[in-house]
Amino acid sequence: MSLLENLGNGLIEALIALLMLGVNLLPESFSAAFEYRFMQRALLTAVLVGAICGLLSSFVVLKRWSLLGDAISHAVLPGVAIAYLLGWPFFVGAFITGALTSLGIGAIERHTRIKPDAAMGLMFTAAFALGIVIISKIASSTHLMHILFGNVLGVQTSALLLTLLAGLVAVLAVWLAYRPLLLYTFDPQQAQALGFNIGLIHYGLILLLTLTIVASLETVGIILVVAMLVTPGATAHLLTDRFKPMLAISVLVGIVSAVAGLLLSFHLDVASGGAIVLVATALFCLALLVAPKHGLVVRIWQRHSLLHEQR
Amino acid sequence: MTDTLAIEAQQLSAAYHRKPVLNNISLTLPAGQWTAIVGPNGAGKSSLLKVVTGTLRPLHGELRIFGASAGQQRRAGKIAYMPQHEQMEWDFPVSVQETVMTGRYGLMRHDAWWQRLLPQRWANPMHRHAVEEALDAVDMREHATRPIGELSGGQKKRVMLARALAQQAEILLLDEPLAGVDPPSERLILAMLERERRAGRSIVMVTHDLPSARCHADQVVLINHTLVGIGPPGEMLSDAMLAQLAVGGSPSGGLHVAA
């Protein structure tokens, strides 16, 4: 165990050193904040979380899973509480309740006349309520606040390692299963006609989503993680009509908002999760205005010149 | 080839959200033939195709394709499918070329493992050639790099056809390939399907276009939840059979007789 710990610490140190090489190239006013140890760790976490959430958010947006992402992120709470109670790693509990909830949503949808959005609303609020009840019994309210809203400035080594692992798994999964994932997102019926196991792809993607959510708990928290799973992908969708560039742009938007949000939170002394999400939203608004093909400015200009021609 | 059976359905029944759509359908489609499936809106024509693609699981009955289970043949890449226009996500950020390439995704399972990890540019060139050929067949080569959302209705149809062609499958399942298409595109599509049939492929198309079905199909299947009739177009598309089709099965929608 201590060997693993040393290995993990070494890895974190190496990655932080790598990041600091980049940070030191920036102007003094930016890099000054990262002289603190906790800020360096927070920076690494923010970059990782921004990248993983960005990667997954392209799939979430194109698959119309925004509400499902919200549902899973809330459903993770009782799992975290139970894992805390039993001394398990957070991820195990979170994944179990996250997966159970998504199975429950599917079952209600298929076997009753309840519509999908109602099924989701029903299941995730129930799971969330259960989590609140358990946590109010076993832990302090600061602890609950950290899970709900994140606390990237006080991130633990174990959480940082989990985030690193989640990032590795997500990148590997998207790389190795790129075509099945793309096809399932684009046209699931074609995936079936070609004999792909779409149940496996579906639950694989849900597992990846749950993993991402759990990895982001400490940074942006349960309530706001869905923003990081929607906003970068939505921003990228406005900026490009190709899938791979969309993945790249949404990863970039995720990282930029996480880092900029972290800096804002440090300088203005505001909650890190909220700051990160607000930066992402600002980037979305910017894209909405000035995107080359789907932006408002271009579209108004096009309509204007069309009217001009007709006259 | 012609004496084998491409599709063999025995007492198939299926339901959508607990609403029955197909009731006890038994039919055999010989290989190498062009079959038109005709019936009123909501009569279960598309559902029949969806049972073959595996999207709709039948409640009862058996489906065999070239004598083997449907799942096995899907994995072997024998079944190409072209959905109805409304089923596709045209906003999706992919180019024409990438869309057609998804027709090859099943066949890529036979590539070496390292080829599957590479971007398309460096992967097995066989797939690229098949895609280019398919794009040529529908006269869409010049639009290869455009996003699919920018295309006109007829061009979108041709892209979906190209995807089915690129798969080089034995069976082409086409859901209304002629709906909403201008006359030049229609001629192009029909000529292309004639070529595919001559090459020995089996074509199964759902259509409301009775003149085209009369002209090109080897056999016509009439469906209105139950099987109303199966036989050569001359017999099946007679006024008497069409009248029976309109009342047969459960009442729903009228038959569109296209001019």
Describe the structure in your own words.
The complex is a heterodimer of chains A (311) and B (259). With 311 residues, chain A is mostly helical. The model of chain A has no long low-confidence stretch (mean pLDDT 88). Chain A has 14 helices and no strands. Chain A is globular. In chain A, 47% of the residues are buried. Chain A has one domain: ABC transporter involved in vitamin B12 uptake, BtuC. Chain B has 259 residues and is α/β, with parallel strands linked by helices. Chain B has a domain at 1-78 and 172-181 and 205-259: P-loop containing nucleotide triphosphate hydrolases (Rossmann fold, 3-Layer(aba) Sandwich). Helix content of chain B is 34%, strand content 24%. Chain B is built from 10 helices and 10 strands. In chain B, the strands form 2 sheets. Chain B has a 6-stranded mixed sheet with strand order 6-7-8-3-9-10, with helices on both faces. In chain B, strands 2-1-4-5 form a 4-stranded antiparallel sheet. In chain B, a hairpin with a 2-residue loop joins strand 4 and strand 5 (68-69). In chain B, helix 5 packs across helix 6. Chain B is globular. Chain B starts with a strand and ends in a 12-residue tail after the last helix. At the A-B interface, helix 9, helix 10 and helix 12 of A face helix 2 and strand 6 of B.
Question: What's this model, at a glance?
Answer:
The complex is a heterodimer of chains A (311) and B (259). Chain A is an all-alpha fold and 311 residues long.
Key structural traits:
heterodimer; A: 311 residues; mainly alpha; ABC transporter involved in vitamin B12 uptake, BtuC; 14 helices; globular; B: 259 residues; alpha/beta; Rossmann fold; six-stranded mixed β-sheet; four-stranded antiparallel β-sheet; 10 helices; 10 strands; disordered C terminus
**The CATH topology of the domain at 1-78 and 172-181 and 205-259 in chain B:** Rossmann fold
Biggest pleated-sheet summary of chain B:
6 strands, mixed
How many domains make up the coordinates of chain A?
1
Number of strands of chain A: 0
Structure classification of chain B: alpha/beta
CATH class of chain A: Mainly Alpha
